[in-house]
Write a structure and sequence with these properties.
Helices cover about 40% and strands about 10% of the residues. By secondary structure, the chain is of the alpha+beta class. Helix 3 runs parallel beside helix 6, helix 6 crosses helix 7 and helix 7 crosses helix 9.
């Protein structure tokens, strides 16, 4: 059966429930194997809406400050540190969107907007300072063997001396985990430059969601017994992926960063699809569903409705994420 025929058959089965979903799931790997390779080369571009619009130009500009850095990598650090919250303050006295501690800010803070003052609470200063600090660390470790960006991140976590001493990322569990976390998150902030492989867990996640069709919606619902097995939108997607061994954050706007992002024409069954009234800000996402193919998703839409099939091509369609196990693990527990 050709790919074209496979999708014609699947779409024609919309009214038959199980057959509709199963045909679409079977099509995951058929279609994936026939996608056109490549999405264009060039410099790293930020994925649509992944960085709040108010910070996007800053991240794009300062993320290209040195060869070891790129906009998606800088975005991943800011997201990991504060969730793009300019007022974030940690128990360790780290402050602002880039979470500088006072001593580090005193030495490495820069006047990014040229207003004559360095303000850790002002993203116009803090984001350039984060990039500047990264690139300064990269200079310290430029002669160390291995990947320069990885060594830069390791220096950020463990200090440049440790990277130089060990000839690369030091054998500290915390540092190695930090490097892996940031470089994994980087993929969710970058517009993919090549085909994104299909999710291996797609069929299982769809099967779980399909089994909940007709279940009444419950705001804050996680499907627990005391909630009558009911879900809201992100509770359903979280449970669907937990059924195949992937732990997602609880809310939709955090689930958006659990893997690389796809253009509309690249969607495959099992991808998460997101909706927002603000097309430029992933932090404003308010709804999520599981794509099943043919322009449809399974979702828990709203109070008074039930889990059902809905079309995705609506004015508030925001974008999509292909969830990966590493991507989900890299997400901060709170942002």
């Amino acid at each position: 059966m050709t790919v074209r025929k496979a999708w014609v058959v699947a779409i024609a089965a919309v009214g038959s429930g199980v057959a509709f979903v199963m045909l679409l799931v079977v099509g995951v790997y058929v279609v994936a194997g026939n996608l056109v390779n490549g999405m264009g080369g060039g410099a790293v571009r930020l994925a649509k809406g992944a960085v709040p619009a108010v910070y996007q130009s800053l991240v794009q500009k300062w993320g290209n400050l040195c060869p070891a850095l790129n906009p998606a990598l800088l975005a991943a650090q800011l997201y990991q540190e504060s969730g793009f919250n300019p007022n974030a303050r940690s128990a360790a006295a780290a402050e602002g969107i880039a979470q500088f501690i006072p001593g580090t800010w005193a030495t490495h803070g820069v006047d990014g907007d040229g207003d004559g003052r360095r303000d850790v609470w002002d993203p116009d200063d803090a984001i350039p300072s984060a990039a500047s600090y990264d690139c300064e660390l990269a200079k310290y470790v430029k002669d160390v063997p291995g990947d320069l960006s990885h060594n830069m991140l390791a220096a950020y976590n463990a200090g440049a001396y440790a990277v130089i001493k060990y000839g690369g990322v030091p054998p500290y569990a915390e540092t190695r985990n930090y490097v892996k976390t940031i470089t994994t998150l980087e993929k969710s902030f970058a517009a993919p430059a090549a085909r994104v492989d299909p999710s291996q867990q797609a069929a299982g996640a769809i099967s779980y969601a399909q089994g909940k069709l007709g279940t009444p919606y419950l705001w804050g619902g996680n499907g627990t017994a005391d909630q009558g097995g009911r879900f809201d939108c992100s509770g359903l997607t979280k449970a669907a992926f937990e059924s195949v061994g992937i732990s997602l954050p609880r809310v939709a706007n955090d689930q958006y960063n659990a893997g690389p992002h796809l253009r509309r024409e690249e969607l495959l069954p099992g991808d998460l699809v997101f909706f927002s009234d603000d097309p430029a800000n992933s932090r404003a996402i308010r709804h999520v569903g599981i794509y099943v193919g043919g322009g449809y998703m399974i979702d828990a839409p709203r109070p008074g409705a039930v889990i059902r099939f809905d079309p995705i091509d609506t004015p508030d369609y925001f974008g999509a994420t292909r969830v990966t196990e590493d991507g989900a693990k890299a997400l901060p527990t709170s942002v």
